[in-house]
Amino acid sequence: MNSKITFRDVVKTFPLKGAAFTALGGVSLEIADQEFVTVVGPSGCGKSTLMSMAAGLQEPDSGSVLVDGTPVSGPGPDRGVIFQQYALFPWLTVRQNVEFGLKLASVPPAERRRRTDQAIDLVGLSDFADALPKTLSGGMKQRCAIARAYAVDPQVLLMDEPFGALDALTRVQLQDQLLATWSQEKRTVLFITHDVDEAVYLASRVVVMAARPGRIHRVIDVDLPYPRTEEIRLSPEFRRIRNEVWTSVYHQEVPPQAA
Amino acid sequence: MAVITPVEKTVADARQQQPRRSRHRPLLLNAVAVAAGIAVWGVVAALGLVDNLPTPTAVAQKAGTMISDGTLASDTFASLRRVFLGYALGVAVAVPVGFLMGWYPTVRALIEPYIQFFRTIPPLALIPLAVVLLGIGEVPKIAVIFLASFMSCVLSSFQGVIDVDKTLINAARVLGASDRTIFAKVVVPASTPFILVGMRIGLGASWATVVAAELIGAQEGLGYRMQKASTWFEMDAIFVSLITIGLLGLVMDRLLLLAERRLTGWQERR
Ligand SMILES: Nc1ncnc2c1ncn2[C@@H]1O[C@H](COP(=O)(O)OP(=O)(O)O)[C@@H](O)[C@H]1O
Ligand SMILES: [Mg+2]
């Protein structure tokens, strides 16, 4: 078995006005080692909840979430998480932010320094290593957050709408950078987005979710080769898959409770 | 070219000078306002428009005597000592208590009723009680100042912990931080701005309280000096004490503001 992340009949409810609100109603999904999977779906369909269970920040009510075949029992350095709101520590410089996880892992100073510099270099922030987050643009902040996750060298990257707040140009740059790093270091990536183009461009599989209750609506394979290029982005085949994903996101049959 | 160069130079000069002028301007205006205020005071006093109002010169002379005979220094020292003792104790207890309240809901539930109750009582109103319970020595004065600074500081550090961005805590957690690390490396720095605001308010409250506390049974101190001067009708001595209280309060506030700027310069300001 080579499933890196497994969701098996995952159910998650939240208390809502005395009743239980079903955020995820039985989700099953397997993500292979080194696979790049994106998740799209209407807001509130449980994308973030799904991801935070893989991260170990939340537990399922029933069903199980496995990483490497072992049930997730909490966060761990084998899984790097990148949040939409960057979540940089504002009182630390770029370098100190990137070092944070390495210090917790008691990596010796010389090695720490090397890995920090490497991660900062990888995202192109070397000139801003000693800057505070408040002086950075949104794109640079997210680069820093990505470097912070890379530094601890996780096998899995969990990304929750990481480029959602960025302008279109910066977003495309960061997408290409992410793919370039992924093709070298082949991590398993679970990437949440609300941007259909982004979902198709990055992934080998797009998971389309539906709301109320949160569930998997369709899984669409992206039969496009890597490395992804501008040529691919503009190809008719890309457009065909994009249209298919678009239709299944925006023209879902109305769920019974919502009518 | 020859025509353009001087124009460019003038523009550049103007650009260079403008920030410098606007930087010094508020200070200059401050000084003008203070001088004008003293002048108005002088005129009002000289014309006798307000009964018993001493002139600025009389007050300055009195200040001279009080400085040379050492009373101003010993009064100031006595008041400052009380403030610092009470204030330091208040902050030292309030910050950990606020943290515990924010971190452990049980602690919060146990302590909050007392804080909400005592919050509605101005510390000054406790002076008579403190005198009865603790006598007229240093202890009741320091106790009241302690309470004043504690009350201002405890809620702000509690609020600081409550307001820590959950995403920051999650970000630390997924990087492998334990609860203890999260507290030390995330909660404490993130709540520093709140604590410093509380400390500034607490210092103001302590300073206000010491003067009032000294009105009751003290042997020295700026408040005591004013009380005594008023029974002897020494208006100039009252003014010297008042001005000293104001100036010292201002200096202490500025020092804390400076510390605040240094410690919380990382904050995004809108
Ligand atoms: N801690 C929580 N308490 C109550 N309801 C929650 C909580 N977290 C998420 N929800 C609800 O669960 C649903 C799914 O949330 P989320 O996973 O954030 O959706 P998405 O990321 O797809 O927009 C939403 O309706 C949201 O309101
Ligand atoms: Mg979300």
UniProtKB/TrEMBL annotation, chain A:
In alphabetical order, the GO MF annotations are: ATP binding; ATP hydrolysis activity
Record-linked InterPro entries? AAA+_ATPase, ABC_transporter-like_ATP-bd, ABC_transporter_ATP-bind, P-loop_NTPase
Alphabetical list of Pfam families matching this protein: ABC_tran
Asked if Transport is a keyword of the record, the answer is: yes
* Keywords for this protein: ATP-binding, Nucleotide-binding, Transport
Domain ABC transporter per the UniProt entry, residue ranges: 5-232
Which SMART domains does the record cross-reference, listed alphabetically? AAA (SM00382)
PANTHER family named in the record: ALIPHATIC SULFONATES IMPORT ATP-BINDING PROTEIN SSUB, TAURINE IMPORT ATP-BINDING PROTEIN-RELATED
Q: What is this protein called?
A: ABC transporter ATP-binding protein
* The species this protein was found in: Streptomyces sp. NBC_00119
| Taxonomic classification | Bacteria, Bacillati, Actinomycetota, Actinomycetes, Kitasatosporales
From TrEMBL, chain B:
Where does the protein end up? Cell membrane
Transmembrane feature ranges: 27-50, 84-105, 117-136, 142-162, 182-203, 237-259
Q: Does the keyword Lipid metabolism apply?
A: no
- One GO biological process from the UniProt record? alkanesulfonate transmembrane transport
**ABC transmembrane type-1 domain ranges (all copies):** 76-256
Superkingdom, natural source: Bacteria
Offer one Pfam family short name for this entry: BPD_transp_1
Q: Which family does it belong to?
A: Belongs to the binding-protein-dependent transport system permease family.
| Name the UniProt record assigns to this protein | ABC transporter permease
Q: Which organism is it from?
A: Streptomyces sp. NBC_00119
